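Archive entry: two folds, one per protein. Generate the first.
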Amino acid sequence: MHVVTVCQSATAWPSLEYKGPVCSSTGSPVEPFHPMVNLQCSPDLRMFLCAIYAPVCTEYGRMTSPCRRLCLQAKSDCYQLMDMFGVSWPEEMDCNRFPDCDETYPRPVDLLSSSDTAESPISVQRDYGFWCPRELKIEPELGYSFMGVRDCSPPCPNMYFTREELTFARYFIGVVSIVCLSATLFTFLTFLIDVSRFRYPERPIIFYAVCYMMVSLVFFLGFLLEDRVSCNAASPGRFRASTVTQGSHNKVCTLLFMVLYFFTMAGSVWWVILTITWFLAAVPKWGSEAIEKKALLFHACAWGVPGVLTVTLLAMNKIEGDSVSGVCFVGLYNLTALRWFLLAPLGLDVV
């Protein structure tokens, strides 16, 4: 996704005395409108020019267009001044070309920042921050957020990669999940043939394999489902793009998250337990019976801690879809959840 947007002040056009940004894109013929912008014939003109010459790119091949109402308002306000300067309204800016939508984009609030009032007149560039285009708007009751903006969701497919990269990543994850599922399933079936052969300190390997058998199964399901679960469907008629699923309103996404997160955390704990049992067998020379007496404690930690973390995330509604792998997980867009519910537990396991 590439958006070429340049916001410049009066220093870019020395002959003008307008104090504020005028937006243009490379090669866009906005020069005839400079006098109207300088004289502020309409409060909507600058927003309209920014929206048409430097549109927001929401997904591959689609851009956010200004609403017809914004075009008509700007044209109506500046009609007399345009006639005075001998400037005609360009055919490519015919208001009938733009969609008839309820909410005008960009909105005045989208172009305001807290530093506007205190900004120095010699400033060359402004950062207006992130504002959510209407294609990414989500119903308020769902509680979505993106880039610190509420009722907004990231676009699908992932905007940071090309289609070729996404396709390669999806098939790579699918192939690896099949290999992992085959290996762990073979380990588990070998254990079932003769359970008595696998005693402590080796037995945690079996539970470790079971955990990653479930993890690989979820990723394999995500490969088959593509983005049907991790993403909300697009609605072109309502000017809605395909967006990433958030929260627990999608039941299938919630189920995939519960299985994936629970067994990922449980697998890491069983890995720690495996190192502990081998240490007890190698250094203090504990026998299998002595280690097996601690089995209840091992199971309580390995299944209880991940269960508590999973329930906590469900209560906090921190589920997020992953458009690359097709599964749902945590910490993909929420940095706080990533730190405390993924990096912190895994870091503690390493320690």
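Generate the second and append.
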Amino acid sequence: MGILSHLLILHLLWAALVFCQYEDYDFEDEYGGEPDHQLPYYFNPNTQVEVPRFPFPVECAKECFCPPAFPLSMYCDHRKLKTIPNIPSHVQQLYLQNNNIEAVPAGPFTNVTFIREINLSYNNIKFHMIDHGVFAKLSHLVQLHLQHNELEEFPFPLPSSLERLLLGFNKISRLPANALEGLPNMTTLDLCNNLLDDSVFKEKPFSNMKNLMQLNLCNNKLQTMPPDLPPSLRHLSLENNSISHIPENYFHRLPHIIALRMSHNNLQDIPHNTFNLPNLLELNLGHNKLKQVFYIPRSLQHLYIEDNEIENINVTVMCPTLDPLNIKQLTYIRVDQNKLTSPISSYAFFCFPLIRTIYYGEQNVTVSRPSQLRTPVFRRFLTPEEFQEAEDNHETLNQETEEDHEAEDSYFHPYY
């Protein structure tokens, strides 16, 4: 016991000496005085591919720029390049947009092992100038940008790792049966502004894409609703086609839809419960030929039905019953360029207690002379500051030209 007591005393004396040594030390003198309030960084092993350590400065193609702050990225955009430079093996993000590239050979990608994103948008690439399998060999590729090129066909084969594929503004007119096979991780597919018609659906190209959440088919030549879409879809864009009918119960297979955009089509009649979807937040049916309104689901927040042929908005059809425990979430309706002669019934404010804005605008009561309702914009629940901001925005909107609206509606951002 005596030995243990002595050892304990020595230990306490040593601890006191260490404490006294740092008791008056001001750590702020060494680290600048201000605490670091940055949010903690949570590393996700699925978002970064482990690459071998490399000395600085990193290797970079002479035509490009590799910033020291982003050693895994190589910027070759806006440089009038006609060919793809050799790509160092460590590169994970490659930016080649806005050049004059016409071909994608396999050579520059020979030693590329870890690349995750390639941006080849705004070039002159054609399908037959892409070496077969050049993308399929990139086993870590997650995102591929090929919009605004000259592609006549879908650029397959592709790697199974791919999650986002952007092909808008090309000349693609068909989808081979196997073009979308082996892509289990695909979440976003943008095919807007191509030459696709209903024949592309014969092989049911989208049916096996179990994780697809966003499908953009706007500005094509579709006349019918695309069949056999995966139930995983959240966002569906079908603007600027020639679709005239939505089959009854069409959306029963798509219960997770959040945003549906079908403006600039030929829709005339909507079955009553077509949009009875539990998660729908945004519905855009502007610039069609609708004569009647339809049932509004509880979840819907924004409704666009401008530039149709609606003469009367029957609120009872939109809201058959009142349920105080499950109030409807609608906050915004746009109904300008219809044939309304009177504002929406005040009963709407019982059905939709959260509604803030109804935009009436001009109404096409007669072909030769559009009329304007007494209240072009109805707003409520606005503070004076919010009201003034809304008025300023409305004045700006009135100054926009018709061409501005057409340009805005013709194509939307592929990420919603």
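Annotation attached to the second fold: The first strand starts at residue 73 and ends at 75. DSSP finds six helices and 16 strands in the chain.
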